[in-house]
Amino acid sequence: MTDHPSPTVDVHAHVLLPEVDALVTGHPGLTAARELDARRNGPASLAVSGPMVRERVPRLTDVTVRLAAMDAQGVDVQLVSPSPSHYHYWADEETAEKLYRLAGEATAAHCARAPDRLKGLGLVPLQHPDLAVRALEHALEQGLSGVEISSHAPGRELSDPAYEPFWARAGETGAIVFLHPFGCTLDERLDRWYLSNTVGQPTENAVALSHIVFSGVLDRHPDLKLIAAHGGGYLPTHIGRSDHAWSTRADAGAGCAHLPSSYLRRLYFDSLVHDPHVLRELVRAVGADRVLLGSDFPFDMGTEDPVGALRAARLPDADFHAVRGGNAAALLRKD
């Protein structure tokens, strides 16, 4: 462990769960989902992604390898979430229940190998809102800190009233909800040059957070502890447009009580924006107490040096240390 006044905490790190892959192998729903994924990403991106993931399997599965990589990065604690490829929102209710239970138990077992350094998150089958509370409670029963969700499920946005019991229970329990998109509904428009990720992920973040803000989820559930991956995508740095619409149009202002920008300070955001100027603007927009270190460990769209990326933003010393780990340490103590 490094000698800091507070630990360095990376809230955006993933684990690959072979048990989940084995559960869904051969299911016709998986075939259809992979065909959609192939169309969305395009052949050139798939040709790069396959070898990239295979090369990273040891870091995604072996705790000893993970800890060595963390030491090299100067990271003391990771909040580990399942790879978003494990969402499988196509799954029927019976399969989905098996999946979230298996994912939660496997993630908890991975983290139990180094409990002082690894905290974990489970999964919620957003395609079955009636299972959401049960999935959250199962994750907490495993000793996990909360759950990871995508930006939407087929036919459902995060503003859907069916998720109200989930938001309520997450707020009551103090569970962390990590919003991490997987796949973008712009589909084949983004099937070249890895636009499916570079444009798709921040777009999905912005859409999902806008649904949460404009529908009043945060008015009804002020205790919700939601962390948005990828710095919240485009929303925090373009929130002025949302404020203008809320102030100008009756339809835009109908669902939430306050200016959209005010809700940014009720959310948390990771630091993974790949640009020190954007990171400074994120801190300005949401507050230094709402930004948490994130690396997307160990994928290629992450950063190998999250602390160095944070240092490049040249934040005031107190803000640097808050983002480096102070904010996340406080949040994890409350989970």
UniProtKB/TrEMBL annotation:
Entry-linked InterPro entries: ACMSD, Amidohydro-rel, Metal_Hydrolase
Name of this chain's protein: Amidohydrolase
Biological processes annotated in GO: secondary metabolic process
Source organism of this protein record: Streptomyces asoensis
Short name of one Pfam family: Amidohydro_2
Highest taxon above the source species: Bacteria
GO cellular component, one term: cytoplasm
Keywords, comma-separated and alphabetical: Lyase
Amidohydrolase-related domain span: 9-333
Residue ranges crossing the lipid bilayer per the database entry: none
An annotated Gene Ontology molecular function: carboxy-lyase activity
